[in-house]
Design brief:
- The chain folds into 2 domains: about 270 residues, P-loop containing nucleotide triphosphate hydrolases (Rossmann fold, 3-Layer(aba) Sandwich); about 170 residues, Nucleotidyltransferase, domain 5 (2-Layer Sandwich), CATH 3.30.420.240.
- Helices cover about 35% and strands about 20% of the residues.
- The protein is built from 17 helices and 17 strands.
- Strands 3-4-5-2-6-7-1-8 form an 8-stranded mixed β-sheet, with helices on both faces. It has a 6-stranded mixed β-sheet with strand order 14-13-10-11-12-15.
- Strand 13, helix 14 and strand 14 form a beta-alpha-beta unit.
- Helix 4 crosses helix 5 and helix 15 crosses helix 17.
- It is elongated, with a radius of gyration of 26 Å.
């Protein structure tokens, strides 16, 4: 049984799509192409051409082992992710290629827990069908174990728990948003795909990525740039607006979104990569600057240290402190501390001053937007505080050439590397660039490192004695 037959079968997948398949016809065409099923010249060819810019008559007979679907919000992406995972686990037959006693995994990985819960609910609904319910041996918190020695795993922002297993199929939900949200332990979709692909090789498992487009960076953007419209590509790239995949989405919803924020709506509903957002610091640039295994440096006499702090109200955002010194033209990061909310800002400032005293730092610089209470609180602990002369974007712009020229020595802190590589350059009117974290992300550690690097390169007034 192929995937389209399973979708059309009332005992299998039809009900999870609402029973009426007309509104799902675009997804059915797309899945035909992925699985090497014939496309109809009358019903499918024009849609396929519009969404892939390829000739349907030149498709590989066996379909595609890698497919990327880039379409907007409310287009049915999560439901299709669940459907593909269920088919691959129960009906695709890949488990027959496993060694005796070997368990195969079908994995759905999303960037956030909330996104994973959505997919999990759809999978739960699929396996509520009596014929499929019989296939479940046990249900775990993050998935199901089936009678055919296959386990379905629904993961959020991480892939380490599946290392060492043979993957029959991986579905990456909202691929463009890995590394955007703070809870994701994966810095980017590039890192995720690099980790997944070797585990798919044993059984030639499929990699299906489904996402709304976002910034012009990472694996998804590179795949689109390289393979969209190529008749010889072995990766299928399908790109279209939300209403192409879901014609029941009201046009007024889309129109209102375009009126409110054109750039966001072009990504969220138009299926376009945002041209006002780009990666700021490539992750490959950072690795050579990290001193492996170094968590901090102890204070040294004869060394002049500087400090930079990022404070928050203690309810939602983190607070952070960085201490560094300069060796010729290189800024060496010596201490990096983060406080996660909830916390009392006054208590955190007290802890910051204790750390600063160990390095004989009695002046701290900080964000321009810190409240007046920050300066008073530091003063109460005998340490002066002043705002940086540059704003956050300017500090990041100052940091980039130092990183590119190897003039910064970083601590081995994965949260810092993730925040630095997750920074985005956003172009605003007048050509002015804003550097900031992505929506839902954080940059407290990145901010203090940029600030302390700038501060360390100012004229040295004295040394620790």
């Amino acid at each position: 049984m192929n995937i389209i037959e399973a979708i059309e079968d009332d005992r299998l997948f039809r009900k999870v799509l609402g029973g009426h398949l007309d509104s799902w016809s675009a997804w059915i065409t797309a899945l035909k192409a992925v699985y090497g099923l014939p496309l109809s010249p009358r019903k499918d060819a024009a849609l396929f051409k519009r969404c892939t810019n390829r000739d349907y008559q030149l498709l590989p007979r066996d379909g595609f082992s890698t497919a990327l679907f880039l379409t907007g919000r409310r287009s049915g992406k999560s439901r299709v992710s669940a459907l593909v995972a269920a088919f691959e686990a129960v009906l695709a037959g890949k488990e027959k290629r496993l060694a005796p006693g070997e368990m195969g995994l079908v994995v759905v990985v999303s960037p956030t827990k909330e996104q994973s819960r959505i997919v999990h609910r759809y999978l739960r609904a699929i396996f509520d069908e009596p014929l499929l319910r019989k296939q479940i041996v046990s249900e775990q918190r993050h998935g199901f174990t089936l009678r055919n020695n296959v386990r379905i795993e629904i993961l959020a922002g991480d892939f380490r728990s599946i290392r060492g297993y043979t993957l029959l199929c991986t579905v990456v939900d909202e691929a463009c948003f890995f590394g955007v949200d703070e809870e994701s332990r994966v810095r980017s979709d590039t890192e995720l795909i690099r980790a997944i692909k070797p585990s798919l090789a044993t059984v030639d498992g499929r990699l299906i990525a489904i996402s709304s487009p976002y910034a012009r960076k990472g694996w998804a953007y590179a795949q689109h740039a390289k393979y969209f419209g190529s008749n010889t590509a072995t990766t299928l790239v399908w790109n279209c607006p939300s209403r192409t995949m879901n014609p029941t989405l009201p046009q007024r919803v889309v129109d209102e979104a375009y009126r409110e924020d054109l750039q966001a709506a072009k990504s969220e509903y138009g299926g376009e990569f945002r041209d006002d957002i780009a990666a700021f610091i490539p992750s490959d640039l950072l690795q050579p600057l990290v001193v492996k295994g170094r968590q901090y440096n102890l204070p040294r006499y004869g060394t002049k240290y500087v400090a930079f702090a990022d404070l928050s109200g203690g309810r939602k955002d983190d607070a952070a402190l960085a201490i560094a010194h300069r060796e010729n033209r290189v800024v060496v990061l010596d201490r990096l501390q983060r406080w996660k909310p909830p916390f009392s800002p006054y208590d955190v400032i007290g802890e910051m001053t204790d750390i600063c005293r160990k390095y004989q730092v009695y002046t701290v610089r900080g964000d321009q937007y810190a409240g007046e209470f920050v300066g008073r609180a530091f003063n109460n602990h005998g340490i002066s505080y002043g705002p940086a002369k540059k704003n956050k974007s300017e500090l990041y712009l100052d940091l980039l050439p130092r990183l590119c020229s190897g003039q910064v020595e970083l601590l081995d802190d994965p949260h810092l590397l993730k925040q630095l590589s997750g920074l985005e350059r956003r172009t605003r009117s007048g050509g002015r660039d804003i550097i900031d974290h992505a929506t839902g992300g954080h940059d407290d550690l990145a901010n203090v490192v940029a600030g302390v690097a700038y501060t360390a390169m100012r004229p040295v007034l004295g040394a620790m004695v």
